[in-house]
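Exam revision sheet. Question 4 asks you to relate a sequence to its structure. Input first:
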Amino acid sequence: MSHFWGDQMLEPLREVSKDFRSLDNRNAFWVAEVLAKNNSSRCNELALDLYTRDAMTPKLVGAISLAAHGKLSKAEFQPIGALHRVLVSEEYLFRTDSTGRKSYADTAPIELTLIAAKYAQSTDSVPDIVALIEKRPLPYGVHAQAADALGAIGDRRAAVVLEEAMRAQDFYALPNAFRALVALSSERAIPLAIDRISPEIKNKNSGFVVRELEAVTGKNFGYDQVRWREWWASHEKSN
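Answer key, structure tokens:
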């Protein structure tokens, strides 16, 4: 719809979001994607306006749109940059209550920042994103967006860390990490995905790794790990 309506969507979005002040951790992702897909002068002006605001959510929505259109400064993911500070700050991952108990914070800001890094294909952000993959456990969305960003950026430094994540029992963003490894041409992508197939991941987000396997291999063994392993052994022998 964003392609079809183009700039005509901007004013209704502005109106319903009260000049983008009512963005929250749900609709911000959708608005960001709409703006990212509309590369017009009016959209770029809006993106710059949002990015220069003080409120974090509109700022990050603007950053995603600018990154998608090649207009976000590379410095934003370097040590002096605002987006770098989001990626490395614990406050966007955890909060501590009055008793000292730690729990997950609203991770929307860090997930939006990871989407901006993905669109910007920022190699400067890779070490910070790798550090998030290595930090476990974390909310599924953080690891999923981190893996997607690493796959899109295409930096081979990420392959080893993603392979380790696929082996970790406290890492659940399996379909995203698998897609990233495929994008990075990792020879370990398929066997690592097969190793994580089990009845326990069925009907969970992790279970979508089976769909990704089927798309890449053209095989359809569902959650039957034995058949997957037999096929892979035969495939390796024939190659």
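Marking note for examiners. The two ends are 45 Å apart (CA to CA).
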